[in-house]
Amino acid sequence: MPNGKMTEIEAQYQRINIFKGKHNRLVYYRPMLKKAYQVTKDDVKQIQIYHYRIFIVLFVSLMAMVITDEDLLLTVGSGVLTLGLVEAWFYFFKIRSFPAQLNFTPSNRIGFIQTHLDESYKIVNIRIFSYIAISVAAIAGAFVGDYQPLYFFGMMAIAAFGLYQVGILIYVQSLRKKGK
User: Fold this and answer.
1) 71/74 Cα distance (integer angstroms)
2) How far, CA to CA in Å, does 133 sit from each of 104, 137, 141, 153, 165?
3) Which of 49, 64, 118, 176 is 20 to 30 A removed from 150 (C-alpha atoms)?
4) Helix H segments across 36-145?
5) Average of pLDDT values for 4-27?
6) Average pLDDT of the chain?
7) Which of the pair, 68 or 99, is modelled with greater confidence?
8) Could you tell me the end-to-end alpha-carbon distance of the chain, in angstroms, rounded to an integer?
9) 139 with 155: CB under 8 angstroms?
10) Which residue segment(s) compose the domain that 148 sits in?
């Protein structure tokens, strides 16, 4: 990391708790367990899949809800089963194959805001407009469509998340204009 600046790849890795350890080796750090494991660049994609497991579970649950015509038991059951399978796959098949890294503490860890400050302002602007478009589409869809309350609140949650992200990204742009 020359001059304290982090490359885009390093910032992406830190989002999924991968840091550079001794001899520039990649180290996957699990903050809840305070354990670290040496990984290779080939392992990064599989760690990303594990890191985004909640989105996978939500996707499977939504698909189950659509397919089973809103059967709540099957929807929740498929989500729990998917989460269990992803957790078991990662713990029993992946994490055990990684060599443990002893006495590792992540250094030069950056936060969420700093990660966005290190990105190009154009990329941040594109994200702002994308989240605005998603929020507007979700709000319009919620009010125009004749949805049941569950779908309506789901659409409103999507819109709220998008507007929350817009707020954070606008804050990042304001920090950038102030010169921080």
Assistant:
1) 6
2) 42, 6, 12, 18, 12
3) 49
4) 41-51, 53-67, 72-88, 112-118, 121-144
5) 75
6) 83
7) 99
8) 19
9) yes
10) 111-180
Higher pLDDT, 124 or 105: 124
Instruction: Examine the domain organization and report whether 103 and 123 are in the same domain.
Output: no
Please say if the pLDDT value at position 180 is more than 60: no
Question: Rounded CA gap, 33 and 106, in Å?
Answer: 13
CA dist 125 and 121 (Å) reads 6
Answer yes or no: are the C-beta atoms of 120 and 169 closer than 8 Å.
no
Q: Which of the two residues, 7 and 104, has the higher pLDDT score?
A: 104
For residues 97 and 31, state if they share a domain: yes
Q: Of 52, 80, 109, which residue constitutes the final position of a domain?
A: 109
Q: Which range among 84-88, 142-146, 168-172 shows the weakest confidence by mean pLDDT?
A: 142-146
Burial of 31 per CB tally in 10 Å (0-12, 13-18, 19+): exposed
Last residue of a domain, one of 91, 109, 127: 109
> Is residue 121 located within the same domain as residue 175?
yes
Distance CA 87, CA 56 (A): 12
Average pLDDT over residues 58-71: 80
Rounded Cα distance between 127 and 168, Å, is: 11
Contact call for residues 99 and 37 (beta carbons, < 8 A): yes
Sign of CA dihedral 55, 60, 66, 72: negative
